[in-house]
């Protein structure tokens, strides 16, 4: 039996980023100076300030988000991350029995830390005075990161779309805003369909980049002569051009496609999230950003960051069923920042 | 009175409110809500760009105020860290920060990185240095080098000749001379951090006499004495880290360019240092230091047309060989 329900009023609430490049430049350069003169000790405070600037400039339905991360918690997290990185570096540089031990310990610790990282980031984010939270289990984190992570590694990234889908499902299905859960509904098949053109392009580029290089080296070894310097120079230019194309064109295309796929498949309670990033527009933005950053030796970076964020967030909206006002508080205990920083240092983008 | 938006911390319901100060208390009033709290128990956010100012109540409620001027007039001098906002929004301080950051980075690259690398290289345990050197030679043997075709009698003769080498202070030098051939590297020699010096057959063939080869060995010993190999490695890691930190947000590819440039610069400095060392060593060993310049000129002839391709020498890790030869001449005549 279905109860009689009047269809709730549907409205579209756009997401907006209000930051400005000039303003962020000031914040960025002061952060940088303080980080340098304190030999890096200030960096957790810099991070909190940066994120607060981003969150408080992100507006949805006339209210902004906020970030509450504690610099000291981030500081300890960073310290742990650096220790792990040093251990990892030495263990993989000087091979011995300790390499295996270190890798196993790090492998077992990583899912725990990543689970913590997701929890920390969400717990210290708020909107309209209500906190976000993450309630995914630690056991599931091991399944996602260890099982699917290793699977991806051993299948030469053929399982990457599967891993990505499982990761996003784990993240978005276990996230809450106050007492309202998020839900995620994008199948593995759709991840594979989105990834397929990129996997093919990547394979082709890989062949185009490395096969000629290998041929020339093999030929020179065979004939016992030095390879012709002009051929080598030409090939190096070709190699760099291919890598440039890959990073500057394929990456933004992929970012756009994946952002749309993930966020248009995510709901907050009954409210549908929608992302409509135009891939080629994003390519233009990232490409021109990269050129400007290069010409200015990095000084354009704050403008580049703001410009990309403004576009990517501006392409998203929330189709609300009824009103957001109905969401009520949940309640979560405090947690440390271990993990958050490990993810940063090990360069694992958990893309929140 | 200042307008704001109030959230009670229990629901996402927004309340349009007005704020006013009533003695030491903040009075908040709107449709369906009214509260009065001591200002001292409120957590008031510092200004940050043009983002809304936030008043956080002890029970989790929060009030957003967009009217920055009104907020400051109401709660003047509230909110920690106002000086940060003042610095970030002052054009003068921002420009000064920019210049300071640039100066600090330049100083770090010029003094800091070499100093730190020197420390790391000096502290590296001997066992590690040996293991690293062995691994490096293995890789080179596998990829680029072939066994030497010099008769063992010739090899032994060169080893004996090398025994004559003395440091500038006159003490014997510890090293191990090994011989290899290479189809691809041409006339060359190199030193591994543990004191192993590799001479390639092609270089032995290029030299007219053993003294010229001793000059090469003396040059390589300069690299060993100053731990150039380890320092270069440590500096490369440090510059790479710095560049990734600086450009990392945008592109890791971009980050490799400064690393390559800095490495080439450091490497040029090391070659010069090793040349100077070689001149002193040769003199202390009773060998004419001019031999080094002679050999460098011969090397220059074999490399004709390959020198400083493009980039005007910026990327050359070895300063042009002829320039080095001239410098050695200068050192030789200066020491006389």
Automatic annotation (TrEMBL), chain A:
It comes from the Bacteria. This is DUF898 domain-containing protein. The chain crosses the membrane at residues 25-46, 72-91, 97-118, 139-160, 194-219, 231-254, 283-306. InterPro entries: DUF898. Pfam families: DUF898. Keywords: Membrane, Transmembrane, Transmembrane helix. The keyword Ribosomal protein does not apply. It comes from Solimonas marina.
